[in-house]
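Lecture 7, part 2: worked example. A protein chain together with iron/sulfur cluster.
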Amino acid sequence: MSTPSILNIQDLHVWFRVYGGVMKVLDGVDFEVNHGEKVGLVGESGCGKTTTMKSILRILPRQAIIPKGKIIFQGHEVLTMKWRELQELRGQKISMIFQDPTAALNPVFTIGEQIKDTIKYSGIAEKDTETIKNIAIKALRDCAMPDPERIMKNYPFQLSGGMRQRVCIAMALATASNLLIADEPTTNLDVTIQDQVLNLIRTLVQEKGTSLILITHSLGVAREMTDRIYVMYAGRIVEMASTQEIFEKPYHPYTRGLLNSIPKLTGEGMMVGIPGHLPNYLNPPSGCRFHPRCDDAMPECRIKKPPFIEVNNGHKVACFLYKG
Ligand code: SF4
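Predicted complex, written out as structure tokens:
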């Protein structure tokens, strides 16, 4: 019996009105997360990962247009939700950890005020100040913050980058939401604490049974953290499989390129990058958006968009090299 999905995105298109025209960023994204599952969304910076996640919370900038697609969360269509339902979704059901903890925290309020407000508006506790304070302290303690009572009195600028990110994780997990979206949560942190933060997220989602979407440009991080991986290129999902299968048997030329770009600790073989860069979304390439960078490109790749087909037991790929 298949596990029911908590989130189901179908054929999502997101465009942005800009001075020079319309940027067609997302071009038919299909994405699914099951209950308690840890899913990675991997691709180069600028490929549309954050746009996909911001669409789920409906926090895209005003220039964004969604001409087509569906986002179903726990059976409800997010794109047609009213303001009140959206507030409930953002406060109680889905939490997001952003890349930059400094921008995510308000500099003029103490950590305590911010974390207590998050808990209060999430509706998980009655408006009893003592209960809310205790939940906040526990959340900080769960995130391995030393002396949480003192941290509650600090302002964000008084904490290091790693501690600010822990505060954001504490806020995200204190609300007991069903889905946690972590958008490059370690990009702005020192290498020494990246591992600690990832371990913390992994342990906490495991304990609480929360579903996780981890957005990352690093396949190495996705390998450590996820059960299943979606690979995205220029606003399209190009491959999806279990994490093990993506590493053992990658099909799409872009996924193979990403894997070849990972430095090898053993020193065997040189790492090879993917030549070229992401296309201009004002005028994206016709057919397969990857064709200008693909060594295997064929004439049909320039004309038609490759369908996303199953090639092997749940492993899907969008490439004309495979016929399903
Ligand atoms: Fe390369 Fe063609 Fe496959 Fe696109 S569809 S990845 S251009 S072979």
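The chain has eleven helices and twelve strands. The pocket of iron/sulfur cluster is lined by residues 252-253, 288, 290-291, 294, 296-298, 301, 306, 319-321 (CB under 6 Å). Keep this in mind for problem set question 3.
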